[in-house]
């Protein structure tokens, strides 16, 4: 049995160090050393690394943006848009335009998933409460799994049919008492995109933005001759051994890489892993024969949502979905199955 149950935060700290060490070791002296700052928002370690002169002030403003979006998207922060919706007693709630657009965009990903993914999943995520159960086990306390009756009840409170949208007023209303909004699967990608947008508008040409398992690259790597950033992909469950191993890496620039995995937040009970990626059609953490999926594409929001959707669908159906999308978009993906075998998408092409 695995005795340690590390959260994503520990893993990402080590991945951040891995990326920065690669940048510095292979760098050229004529370029400015990177300036980096980290902080925790939305229960996620956020790190911004820039190379331009006078970057410190811009980085500080990035964290003000992160705070702004936490105050909109957090489900636990009293007064946030999501909090207001979840405590509205099914009354209409007028939202900030950005919250409304993110909810509306999220319905597209629900359709892509065949109804397995939804931001209207709060009843199930609260019922499973993966982090609390993991903490309890780590502290030697006993836990119990949700009963099938409670899972069935929570499932009935999930999905896009439990929320109504009004474009004219940018308002939403929960239509089923007890249904709850949870933007956790899309918020980090959206925030990363907005931070990048802000930095580019202020003349930044090179940098790295990290939010949990989301890595968003600005431009090219100025410290490497080939101009690529080298990004490590964690070996699933390697944190259980006290260190994060890198199972593979990709060379990329000016794009986003987002990983969703069953090892990021989980607990083990009677020899079985229960993780945070829940299929709302069953009410249980999905068993898709995968340990992780990484998606590489321009938009961090797209990569964030798609990595979860692909994990829910499994490799075969996930590849078919990517095939249907790739005519209009540029997607790459890395599937790591439950035996840590690696499949790259597209299979006929190698990553840079």
Count the strands? 17
The end-to-end span amounts to 38 Å
Task: List SSEs in N-to-C order.
Answer: HEEHHEHHHHEEHEEEEEEEEEEHHEE
Kindly report the oligomeric state of this protein.
Answer: single chain
Spatially, the strands of the biggest sheet line up as 1-2-6-7-10-15-16-17
**Biggest sheet overview:** 8 strands, antiparallel
Shape: globular
Helix-strand makeup class: alpha+beta
Helix content: 25-40%
Give me the Rg, rounded: 20 Å
Proportion of strand residues? 15-25%
Number of helices, where a helix is a run of at least 4 consecutive DSSP H or I residues: 10
Instruction: List the uncertain runs.
Output: 1-31, 348-352
On the 0 to 100 scale, the average pLDDT is: 89
Concise summary:
The protein has 352 residues and is α+β, with helices and mostly antiparallel strands. 35% of the residues lie in helices and 24% in strands. Residues 1-31 and 348-352 have low confidence and may be disordered.
List keywords for this structure.
three-stranded antiparallel β-sheet, 35% helix, disordered N terminus, alpha+beta, disordered C terminus, eight-stranded antiparallel β-sheet, 352 residues, 10 helices
Structural description of this entry:
The protein is of the alpha+beta class. The chain has 10 helices and 17 strands. The strands form 5 sheets. Strands 1-2-6-7-10-15-16-17 form an 8-stranded antiparallel beta sheet, sandwiched between helices. The protein has a 3-stranded antiparallel beta sheet with strand order 3-5-4. β13 (278-279) and β14 (284-285) form a beta hairpin. α8 (187-201) packs antiparallel against α9 (300-313). It is globular, with a radius of gyration of 20 Å. It starts with 7 loop residues before the first helix and ends in a 7-residue tail after the last strand. The model is unreliable at 1-31 and 348-352 (pLDDT under 50).
């Amino acid at each position: 049995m695995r005795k340690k149950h590390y959260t994503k935060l520990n893993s990402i700290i080590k991945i951040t160090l891995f990326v920065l060490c690669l940048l510095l070791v292979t760098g050229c002296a004529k370029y400015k050393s990177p300036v980096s700052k980290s902080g925790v928002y939305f229960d996620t370690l956020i790190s911004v690394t820039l190379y331009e002169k006078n970057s410190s002030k811009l980085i500080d403003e990035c964290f003000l943006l992160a705070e702004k979006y936490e105050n909109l998207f957090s489900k636990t922060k009293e007064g946030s848009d999501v909090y207001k919706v979840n405590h509205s007693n099914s009354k209409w709630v007028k939202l900030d335009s950005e919250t409304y657009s993110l909810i509306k965009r999220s319905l597209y990903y629900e359709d892509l998933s065949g109804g397995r993914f939804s931001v209207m999943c709060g009843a199930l995520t609260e019922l499973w409460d993966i982090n609390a159960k993991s903490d309890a086990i780590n502290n030697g306390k006993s836990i119990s799994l949700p009963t099938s009756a409670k899972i069935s009840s929570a499932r009935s409170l999930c999905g896009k049919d439990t929320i109504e949208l009004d474009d004219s007023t940018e308002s939403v209303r929960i239509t089923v008492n007890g249904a709850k909004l949870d933007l956790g699967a899309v918020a980090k990608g959206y925030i990363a995109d907005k931070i990048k947008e802000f930095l580019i508008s202020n003349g930044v040409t090179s940098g790295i933005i990290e939010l949990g398992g989301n890595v968003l690259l600005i431009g090219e790597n100025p410290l490497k001759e080939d101009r690529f950033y080298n990004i490590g992909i964690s070996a699933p469950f390697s944190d259980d051994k006290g260190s994060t191993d890198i199972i593979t890496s990709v060379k990329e620039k000016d794009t986003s890489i987002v990983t969703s995995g069953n090892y990021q937040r989980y607990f083990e009970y009677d020899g079985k892993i229960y993780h945070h990626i829940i299929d709302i059609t069953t009410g249980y953490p999905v068993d898709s024969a995968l340990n992780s999926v990484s998606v590489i594409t321009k938009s961090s929001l797209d990569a964030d949502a798609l990595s979860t959707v692909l994990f829910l669908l499994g490799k075969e159906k996930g590849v078919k979905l990517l095939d249907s999308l790739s005519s209009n978009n540029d997607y790459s993906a890395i599937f790591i199955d439950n035996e840590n075998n690696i499949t790259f998408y597209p299979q006929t092409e190698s990553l840079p």
